[in-house]
Design a protein that fits this description.
The complex is a heterodimer. Chain A is mostly helical. Chain A contains 13 helices and 4 strands. Chain A is elongated and about 70 Å long. By secondary structure, chain B is of the alpha+beta class. Chain B has one domain: 2-Layer Sandwich (Alpha-Beta Plaits). In chain B, a hairpin with a 5-residue loop joins strand 2 and strand 3. The chains are: A mainly alpha, B alpha+beta.
């Protein structure tokens, strides 16, 4: 997943670079890049809903989901977002929309089937915290800045290349051009890679923020924790069968033990590790128990 | 809650506004004079119980505080959304006393730091023809809205009556102007 996202972004940078290389007017490139950004920013709700096959539902169609969202909105004094359901058995939920007024909160049928009302409330509170934190706008702008950084690097190098050093002999100039073009490619890829890592770190920070805000809103950090465990399948680790009869299924219970500390995958992922999230929720739960 | 806080992902739970609840007694007079609805003497407070011992202690304190009164004891019910309703019964003629009891619940929850856990408060009215209406108070907004379930119908609201009440009470209390915040409270205790 991460590789695909990375390659997609890289493709974008290379595409813009190629446009620059074939000497298309830079105004046109600005329009294309700006257009992408514009679409991403203003149509994010529709794009995400379309991609997940989400459908906006009325109060009559999904009374329970609406009632939970209604109560969360009344607790947090936020405008009510649109409520959508995606017909998909993957347990998941997401929120999109650049502002609170345009927000959509979507849950899959899979998550509604697996979680009880309290857990679902915890998940929806997490998603609505994303809305309250303007996360769609923040992440769109951040990732756009990353792409922009890559492009600016290119501009800078081209400017140097064509601006300085006039009067060179033709043959030598050609060789230089090839060298510099290669160099530019490398540097802009590095700039993009660094900004990619930074954006991932930002995303993990905002996930933790949404967890905290959601847990404080419902007052039930443990419900969110148990929802997280159910969704990530970690609940399967708690044995429900007699160990002797479960022996044959051991292969299915096995989860790759993650090394403590910063591993490579934790650097690249958009979400903090389950351990990190549960740790934070347990801390909030302790604070609530002691009355702060 | 500033814009910067929300941008940095550090939103805080919203504090409850308790004071506007005291608009109820004068609204009750208008309900009777203008629409023929009289107070049923029942009111309830709905809140989200936080997990842990601290909240459980506060809740026990509140119940004790209200039970110390000579009146009937408060009733505690949990609904299917994980919220708790504290039902307070009072003499139907004395709306001001009912509001004072409700305020006692609210302020003790708030003093213990659980103000953000308050969802809404509700006071119900009855018509001689059997219709029932609740005035629901939203703590985070400081506004009221009417909730009128259609008698005999399954989860349908009498929107015409609600709009009529909205108009009648406009001078007595702050009625919630955004209609999509008028969420239904089906089967709420006291209704």
């Amino acid at each position: 997943m991460f590789l695909v996202m990375f390659l997609l972004g890289l493709l974008y940078v290379v595409f813009v670079g190629a446009l620059l290389a074939v000497n298309i007017a830079w105004q046109l490139i600005v329009i294309v890049v700006g257009g992408f950004f514009f679409i991403q920013f203003f149509a994010s709700d529709r794009i995400a809903l379309f991609a997940m096959h989400g459908r906006i539902v009325t109060e009559q169609e999904a009374p329970q989901l609406h009632a939970i969202v209604d109560r969360l909105c009344a607790m947090s004094n936020t405008p009510k977002p649109k409520v959508a359901i995606a017909d998909n058995d993957m347990p998941n939920a997401f929120a999109t929309g650049r502002s609170q007024k345009r927000a959509v909160v979507c849950a899959t049928t899979g998550i509604m089937r697996r979680l009880d009302a309290e857990e679902l409330e915890g998940v929806l509170a997490h998603e609505m915290s994303h809305v309250a934190h303007h996360d769609v706008a923040v992440m769109t702008i951040a990732s756009f800045l990353g792409v922009l950084a890559g492009i600016i690097t290119r501009f800078a190098f081209y400017a140097e290349m064509f601006g300085g050093g006039g009067g060179n002999r033709r043959g030598r100039n050609d060789q230089n051009t090839a060298m510099i073009a290669f160099f530019v490619m490398i540097v802009s890829a590095i700039v993009y890679a660094v900004s990619f890592l930074l954006i991932r770190a930002l995303s993990r920070y905002r996930e933790l923020s949404a967890d905290r805000a959601g847990a404080l809103l419902t007052g039930r950090p443990s419900s969110l924790a148990s929802a997280l465990q159910k969704v990530t399948g970690a609940m399967g680790q708690i044995p429900t069968r007699d160990l002797r009869s479960a022996e044959a299924f051991n292969a299915f219970f096995f989860t790759p033990a993650l090394a403590k500390g910063a591993s490579l995958s934790s650097l690249f992922s958009t979400h903090p590790s389950l351990e990190r999230r549960l740790e934070q929720l347990a801390e909030i739960s302790r604070e609530l128990g002691e009355g702060r | 809650m500033g814009f910067l806080d929300s941008l940095l992902g550090r939103t805080k739970p919203v504090k409850a506004d308790l004071d506007d609840l005291f608009a109820l007694p004068s609204a009750a007079i208008t309900m009777q004079a203008g629409l023929g609805f009289t107070s049923s003497g029942m009111g309830s407070v709905c809140y989200k119980p936080a997990e842990g011992a601290a909240f459980a202690r506060t809740q026990a304190d509140v119940q004790q505080l209200l039970d110390a009164d000579q009146g009937p004891k408060v009733e505690l019910t949990a609904d299917k959304f994980g919220f708790t309703w504290l039902l307070v019964r009072h003499d139907p003629a004395d709306v001001a006393g009912l509001v004072t009891d409700l305020h006692a619940v609210n302020s003790s929850l708030q003093d213990a730091g659980f103000g953000p856990a308050l969802l809404c408060s509700l006071v119900s009215f009855v018509h001689p023809d059997g219709r029932r209406v609740a005035l629901v108070y939203l703590y985070k907004r400081g506004t009221f809205y009417p909730f009128a379930p259609l008698p005999g119908a399954d989860q349908r609201r009498d929107n015409a009556l609600e709009i009529q009440i909205q108009g009648a009470l406009a001078n007595d209390m702050k009625v919630e102007p955004e209609l999509n915040r008028w969420f239904p409270v089906w089967g709420a205790p006291g209704l």
